[in-house]
Amino acid sequence: MAQIKLDGTSKVFGDITVIPPLDLEIGKGEFVVFVGPSGSGKSTLLRLIAGLEQVSGGRIYIEGRDITTTPCGDRGLAMVFQSYALYPHMTVRQNMAFPLEMAGEAKASINRSIEETAHVLDITRFLDRRPAQLSGGQRQRVAIGRAIVRNPTAFLFDEPLSNLDAALRSSTRLEIMKLHQQLGATMIYVTHDQVEAMTMADRIVVLNHGKIEQVGTPQELYERPANLFVAEFIGAPR
Ligand code: ADP
Ligand code: MG
User: Fold this and answer.
1) If we measure between CA atoms, which residue out of 144, 155, 149 comes closest to residue 30?
2) Ligand 1: which of 44, 82, 194, 213 to mutate, most ligand atoms within 8 Å of CB?
3) Alpha-carbon distances of 203 from 28, 32, 96, 125, 140, rounded to whole Å
4) Cβ contacts of residue 217 below 8 Å, gap of 6+?
5) What residue stretches are annotated with the ABC transporter domain (predicted)?
């Protein structure tokens, strides 16, 4: 069974169809990248899955459960944005604890989750610092840590590296991939960067004007692009 399933899912803003009805299944533990030019609907599609936007049509299922109208916070998904969205007045530890405290989790269990996650992400030595005392890459790791402690069903990343310089981007990219292996968690990752998509994805979903042009492994897209758009966008020889 697909872990995340979109069934005729669509989105209309005013009289503009941003996402025509589309179907997509994502398996448990998959690393799926949504790639496409700016304005192709990547963020909108991710926000529909996250529940930050309501669908205009169709259904969304998580592990067979229809969550189409389930509020964002009850979907068991964690969203990591490009802006780090950390609370500036809280330490790293407090930032990570906050969502768990809101969920009513016990103090001891919160501390244990934070220690474990900090260890995995190698941010233990930053736990008592505030965001302003961290580099961009460290802040991004904390933002990912804050998502991990909630033990989500899946992680949704929207261009999480676009605020980082080239060197940090490639090291953080490797960290996210390592994390994917360690956690075995489903991850959906949005980027407009073909190279990022090709190097990170188990499967790539190519979007163009909200429409899925092709879904396939990086190798499939490279060797057998479905059309000219995919061929040109991925940069495969024709
Ligand atoms: P991407 O993330 O691929 O750059 P988006 O999903 O942000 O694309 O946007 C897809 C299209 O939907 C764009 O044309 C954008 O202008 C439009 N759009 C996104 N959000 C809204 C909104 N809240 N209201 C109206 N139009 C929107
Ligand atoms: Mg976007």
Assistant:
1) 155
2) 44
3) 12, 5, 30, 35, 24
4) 201, 202, 203, 204
5) 4-234
Work out the number of other CB atoms within 10 angstroms of the CB of residue 109.
Answer: 10
Transcribe the chain into DSSP letters.
--SEEEEEEEEEETTEEEEEEEEEEE-TT-EEEEE-STTSSHHHHHHHHHTSS--SEEEEEETTEE-TTS-GGGS-EEEE-SS----TTS-HHHHHHHHHHHTT--HHHHHHHHHHHHHHHT-GGGTTS-GGGS-HHHHHHHHHHHHHTT--SEEEEESTTTTS-HHHHHHHHHHHHHHHHHH--EEEEEES-HHHHHHH-SEEEEEETTEEEEEE-HHHHHHS-SSHHHHHHHT---
Minimal-distance CA residue to ligand 1 atom 25: 13
Task: Please determine, for residue 22, whether its predicted confidence score (pLDDT) is greater than 90.
Answer: yes
Residue predicted with more confidence, 146 or 10: 10
Name all residues whose Cβ lies below 6 A of ligand 1.
13, 18, 36, 38-44
The answer to whether the beta carbons of residues 200 and 173 sit under 8 Å apart is yes
Provide the pLDDT for residue 8: 98
For the record, the structure tokens of 5 come out as 């399933």
> pTM for the complete prediction?
0.90
**What would the pLDDT profile of 172-193 be if each residue is shown by its tens digit?**
888 889 889 988 999 999 999 9
Neighbours of 126 (CB within 10 A): 22
